[in-house]
Specification:
two-stranded antiparallel sheet, seven-stranded antiparallel sheet, alpha+beta
């Protein structure tokens, strides 16, 4: 069974339940680790490739908010709580995945953890992005949040590569 596969709750019932899952993406960027690190952890640079206008800097234990500028998602305001910054190795934050419906208050829902792991490699920097905690997201929106963020990270990696290379 693949990592992204969903399991039926019961045979013949049109209802799906996701086992505890995580999104994991790995890419080698043709850029030095320092360049990639700054693109990830400088809020202005992050905003450029991620397409979000952030208000404030990233700092451990602090929240940063910003409005997306991705076509079709301009109404979405992200809130990211920075968990950990280990210079040029690890950066992580928590957020509400695929929280795009303006009529819904997601603040009481659990968050997912997004982690960026950097390593030197031949030809540049190996970046691994992991988003975990989907098993805690309400079942009614879990599969859609997982699917949309899985696709979203694929696109964001392309944006990041264009930005740093």
């Amino acid at each position: 069974m693949s990592q992204n596969e969903l399991l039926p709750v019961a045979e013949g019932i049109n209802q799906w339940q996701s086992k505890p899952r995580r999104i994991e993406k790995r890419v080698v960027l043709r850029a030095p680790r320092t360049r990639v690190w700054h693109a990830l952890t400088n809020a202005e640079e992050f905003g450029t490739w991620f397409r979000v206008k952030l208000e404030g800097a990233f700092a451990e234990g602090r929240s940063v908010r910003g409005r997306l500028s991705i076509p079709g998602y301009e109404h979405v305001t992200l809130e990211m709580l920075v968990e950990r910054i280990d210079p040029e190795r690890h950066f992580s934050y928590r957020w509400h995945p695929y929280a795009v419906d303006p009529a819904v208050d997601y603040s009481a829902e659990p968050t997912t953890l997004v982690e960026f792991h950097l390593e030197d490699t031949d030809g540049g920097t190996a970046l691994t992005i992991v988003e975990s905690g989907f098993d805690r997201i309400p079942l009614a929106r879990r599969a859609e949040a997982f699917r949309m963020n899985d696709n979203g990270w694929t696109g964001q990696i392309k944006q990041l590569a264009k930005y740093v290379e």
